[in-house]
Amino acid sequence: MTQEPAYFPFVRDMLMQRSGLVVTPEKVYLLETRLLPVAHRHGFNCVDSMISELKSCHNESLAVDVTEAMNTHESLFFRDDIPFKLFKDILLPELLERRRAKKTIRIWCAACSSGQEPYSLAMILNEEAHRLRGWKTEIVATDISNAVLTRAAQGTFTQFEVQRGLPVKKLIQHFTQEEESWQIKKNIRDMIQFRQFNLLDARYLFGKFDIIFCRNVLIYFDLATKSKVMTKISRCLEKDGVLFLGSSESTIGITQDFWPVKAGRGVYKHTDGCPSLAEKIE
Ligand SMILES: C[S@@+](CC[C@H](N)C(=O)[O-])C[C@H]1O[C@@H](n2cnc3c(N)ncnc32)[C@H](O)[C@@H]1O
């Protein structure tokens, strides 16, 4: 195991407080690798001197950069496949039935990174547009990181990124090629509202959603943080709504507000007995 640098306790506490990220001693090796480029960018010759600066005076932009560098932003189009199939084949038809009076569908991607997840959902909604005439569909996509949100809102992806999970047919239909990169078309881009939001915030201000994707972010939190986040998410989800977590995440031992839906790993409904949108998945 790499030896803990003297600055480790300060950085560990700062990351926990700002984003909920738990850095265990086994992950110490990541500190140097990820923070050295930040130190150089800010004019320091080593991580130690950058952290000394953070300790001695409040430097918000440096603290934000350190936090962002330690977060993992890995994402891909149609990640894990099943959530998107369930959304298209079961949840969307069910919503069209249940919300026919309101004619509104609201989806939240809470920790959307560079946008592959909300764009995957937007492509599905676009392809189902014939069934959604006269409906209002909203996708709110949030992340703690302004840097990834800026990228997400631009909707420009590398060849490598579009090769991961995105069927060629969808690439041709929804993107235009610009030299080395691929640009998502404006009609898809305009279906999503990108907003900066920290899941640790006390108040969740975006109203109620029919579907929430909160995938591959809880894994970085400790139990107490996961539990607080899940309680707040529970209040934002309609009583018959569905929550998607990452395939390696679970609510077991964290909250009793949600119940796993059998067929799809990572699919959850409220535990209060209300007939859920997910009934047909079970
Ligand atoms: C691994 S990515 C997951 C992206 C996407 N949901 C997926 O599954 O492909 C995790 C994202 O969570 C964001 N994140 C980390 N801590 C957060 C917090 N406290 N509030 C909101 N977003 C956070 C990171 O910035 C990062 O973009």
The CATH C-level class name of the largest domain? Alpha Beta
End-to-end distance, in Å? Answer: 44 Å
Q: Output the radius of gyration.
A: 20 Å
Derived structural class: alpha/beta
Instruction: Work out the helix count.
Output: 11
CATH architecture of the largest domain: 3-Layer(aba) Sandwich
Specify the helix fraction band: 40-55%
- Average pLDDT works out at 95
CATH topology of the largest domain: Rossmann fold
In CATH, the homologous superfamily of the largest domain goes by the name: Vaccinia Virus protein VP39
Anisotropy-based shape: globular
How many separate structural domains?
A: 2
Question: How much strand?
Answer: 15-25%
* Ligand inventory: S-adenosylmethionine
| Main sheet attributes: strand count, strand direction, barrel closure | 7 strands, mixed
Strands in their spatial order, largest beta sheet: 6-2-1-7-8-10-9
Number of strands: 10
Write the H/E string, N to C.
HHHHHEHEHEHHEEHEEHEEE
Query: Low-confidence spans: pLDDT under 50, at least 5 residues?
Result: none
Name a few traits of the molecule.
282 residues; alpha/beta; Chemotaxis Receptor Methyltransferase Cher, domain 1; Rossmann fold; 2 domains; seven-stranded mixed sheet; three-stranded antiparallel sheet; 11 helices; 10 strands; 41% helix; 18% strand; globular; binds S-adenosylmethionine
State the gist of this model:
The chain has a 7-stranded mixed beta sheet with strand order 6-2-1-7-8-10-9. It is built from 11 helices and 10 strands. The longest helix is centred in the N-terminal third of the chain and has 17 residues.
